Amino acid sequence: MSVTDEDPPGSSAVSPKALENLAGPSRAEDSQVCAICGDKATGKHYGAISCDGCKGFFRRTVRKRHNYSCRFKRMCIVDKDHRNTCRRCRYDVCMRMGMKTEAVQEWGGIGGLVSQ
C-alpha cells in the first residue's frame, strides 16, 4: 500500500494528548502538545501544531516521496513512545491533523532551496 491521496483515511490510534487538540487550533496552540504524537510541540509546522520529530518526519516523507505501508491494517498507535513503529500510520495522522504537502519546500541540496 502506498502513500497517496486516493487512499482512504486510516484509523490509526492517536494518543489521548493528541486527541485533546481536536477541539480547535486555539486549544492546540495554548497547550503546545504535538497534534500527531502528543510530545511537546515547538510550533505550527506545515499547517499543524507539532514537535520537531513529526515536523522532520513529514518533511522527509514529502521531499523524498516515500511510499509507506502498514503491516497492521492501519490501526497502529501513534504516540511519543510508538511514533517510530509504523511510518504509514504516522503519515496518516500528520495528514488528518492538517499537515499540507504543498507547504514543504523542495530542497536543492548543497545550494539550498530550489527557487520556484
TrEMBL record:
Assigned protein family: Belongs to the nuclear hormone receptor family.
Compartments reported by the entry: Nucleus
Superkingdom to which the source organism belongs: Eukaryota
Annotated segments matching region Disordered: 1-29
Chief place of localization: nucleus
GO molecular function: DNA-binding transcription factor activity; sequence-specific DNA binding; zinc ion binding
GO cellular component, one term: nucleus
Nuclear receptor domain location: 31-106
Protein name, per record: Nuclear receptor domain-containing protein
UniProt KW keywords: DNA-binding, Metal-binding, Nucleus, Receptor, Transcription, Transcription regulation, Zinc, Zinc-finger
